[in-house]
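I trust your eye. Have a critical look at both lines of this record:
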Amino acid sequence: MKQISTKEIVDLFAYNKDSAVLVEKRPLPGNAQYKVNYSVVNFATGEQEVITKGAYLLRKFGSAFQKISTEIPNFVQCDAAVLYDRRVSLTERAHWNGTVCSSTTTPR
């Protein structure tokens, strides 16, 4: 397993078979506020290329990225799928705070 970042990763999705789009949360001086960095990580070469917010939005939401990014306040922490007819399906990410049980254990 390779470490691709020392920062908190707030979004990660496939770019192609060898690369992924990565959004890192970076604290600003004083640690009260944060900034995000957008990049593409190539797992075959280990290279990380910085991309613009616009390139990130286009890759995540497709051609509807401008409208979606203005209507959704936290566009980083939602999942998106561009459908066959170019519509975009959005889902809010759920945060799990439970226990995962295998078929040989019982829930508590």
User: Anything to note?
Assistant: The first strand starts at residue 8 and ends at 14. The CA atoms of residues 5 and 28 lie 17 Å apart. Helices lie at 53-61, 65-71. The radius of gyration is 17 Å.
